[in-house]
């Protein structure tokens, strides 16, 4: 299997988690991180030596050494960055929600389809072992009639 080379856009709340988790995967290389904050880029260089950093999104998207992009930026920027990444020929994983509006989501989905690129949305909580267990119990009918579930995500 060929190695997939990934760029990460945004090194705030979720970017470091993506970088750490991706580096732990076989066949994956995180080659560059882009963020507008020089402080965040300095933190990235300190925590992950060898990963190139830039404050220029176009530099990351224009890199021939990047196959796919993770978008971990504030929601207001998702549509523009995702669209730009797809137009640059990159596969995209965007943190949820994908875009601010349904029309924007449809547009970038159609763009990805037309370019035969993968567009994914991060829904990490769907794969949480506690949530998976609860879903299995509901499916077995162990909890009776369930009309509503409210969860609170806490730290450790």
Give a description of the structure:
With 156 residues, this protein is an alpha/beta fold. It has 6 helices and 6 strands. The chain has helices at 15-23, 38-47, 57-61, 75-87, 102-114, 129-140; strands at residues 4-9, 28-34, 52-54, 68-71, 91-95, 119-122. The protein has a 6-stranded parallel beta sheet, sandwiched between helices. Helix 4 (75-87) runs parallel beside helix 5 (102-114). Strand 1 (4-9), helix 1 and strand 2 form a beta-alpha-beta unit. The radius of gyration is 18 Å and the shape is globular. The model has no long low-confidence stretch (mean pLDDT 93).
Give a quick summary of the entry.
The protein is an alpha/beta fold. Helices cover 40% and strands 19% of the residues.
Annotate the secondary structure layout.
Layout: E1 4-9, H1 15-23, E2 28-34, H2 38-47, E3 52-54, H3 57-61, E4 68-71, H4 75-87, E5 91-95, H5 102-114, E6 119-122, H6 129-140
Parallel strand pairs: 1-2, 1-4, 2-3, 4-5, 5-6
Helix pairs in contact: 4-5
**N-to-C SSE string, H for helix and E for strand:** EHEHEHEHEHEH
Largest sheet: 6 strands, parallel
Our estimate of the beta-strand percent is 15-25%
Total number of helices: 6
Strand order of the largest sheet: 3-2-1-4-5-6
**Uncertain stretches:** none
Number of strands: 6
The rounded distance between the terminal residues' Cα atoms is 35 Å
Mean pLDDT: 93
The helix/strand class is: alpha/beta
The helical percent reads 25-40%
Oligomer: single chain
CA-based gyration radius: 18 Å
Which outline best applies?
globular
């Amino acid at each position: 299997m060929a190695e997939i080379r990934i760029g990460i856009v945004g090194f705030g709340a979720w970017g470091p988690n993506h970088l750490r988790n991706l580096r732990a995967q076989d066949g994956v290389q995180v080659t560059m991180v882009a963020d507008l904050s020089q402080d965040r880029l300095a933190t990235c260089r300190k925590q992950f030596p060898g990963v190139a950093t830039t404050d220029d999104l176009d530099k990351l998207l224009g890199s021939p050494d990047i196959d796919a992009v993770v978008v971990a930026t504030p929601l207001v920027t998702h549509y523009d960055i995702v669209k730009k990444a797809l137009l640059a020929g990159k596969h995209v994983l965007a943190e949820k929600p994908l875009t601010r509006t349904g029309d924007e989501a449809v547009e970038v989905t159609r763009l990805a389809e037309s370019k035969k690129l993968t567009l994914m949305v991060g829904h990490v909580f769907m794969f949480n072992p506690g949530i998976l267990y609860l879903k299995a119990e509901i499916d077995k009918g162990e909890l009776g009639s369930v009309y509503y579930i409210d969860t609170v995500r806490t730290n450790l």
